[in-house]
Amino acid sequence: MRYLSCANSYSRTVSGLRAYCGVTAGTASETVRRLVRRGLLERRPSDTDRRRIRLDLTSKARAMLRRDPADGLASVLSTFAQPQLTVLASVLEEAANVLAKQQGKTVFGTCRNCRYFQAAGAQVPWEQRPACALMRVALHRTELGALCMRFESR
Ligand code: SF4
């Protein structure tokens, strides 16, 4: 559920969950089925491709995540200065990428460090929203910091 709460809408899928957790497709599908049965997940058609199914956390799941023990760490980190957090995030992302590549796993990352990221107005001056050159879609600002399974480092 932590992964699904941090992943962008293109990566909140069974295959995204499978790749992130390093489990088989069968295990990921069964996990999703159980979470849906428990009222923690909803399956919805993707906004950009109706054939793809996006997984969204329910309000019940979000309430559970608000009691997540990992929040203690997040709370401590929130007291750090932004430059320190930026360096820490960058080091951890790079380390995770190297480890994923060494193990032949999918590399996850966020838009601002991705080779497909186009800042607002970068290609088309009147385009006011950032965009993804890979999927050819405008990106919502809320998704720029979310994990993406199609990420490729610059
Ligand atoms: S720019 Fe990169 S990280 Fe962002 S949605 Fe596109 S592929 Fe994913």
What does this structure look like?
- With 154 residues, the protein is α+β, with helices and mostly antiparallel strands.
- It folds into two domains: 79 residues, Arc Repressor Mutant, subunit A (Orthogonal Bundle); 66 residues, no CATH class.
- It has a three-stranded antiparallel sheet, with no helix packed on it. Strands 1-2 form a two-stranded antiparallel sheet.
- Helix 2 packs across helix 3.
- 19% of the residues are buried.
- The model has no long low-confidence stretch (mean pLDDT 90).
Please render the helix and strand layout as text:
Layout lengths: L1 H5 L7 H8 L3 H13 L3 E5 L7 E5 L1 H7 L5 H7 L4 H21 L14 E2 L12 E2 L4 E2 L16
Antiparallel strand pairs: 1-2, 3-4, 4-5
The protein binds iron/sulfur cluster.
The site of iron/sulfur cluster has 13 residues, from loops.
In CATH, the architecture of the largest domain is Orthogonal Bundle
Tell me the domain tally.
Answer: 2
What is the makeup of the main sheet?
Answer: 3 strands, antiparallel
Q: What's the number of helices?
A: 6
| CATH topology value of the largest domain | Arc Repressor Mutant, subunit A
Write the CATH homologous superfamily of the largest domain: Winged helix-like DNA-binding domain superfamily/Winged helix DNA-binding domain
CATH class of the largest domain, anyone? Answer: Mainly Alpha
End-to-end Cα distance: 28 Å
Q: Average pLDDT, to the nearest integer?
A: 90
Task: Assign an overall shape.
Answer: globular
Low-confidence stretches: none
Portion in beta strands: 5-15%
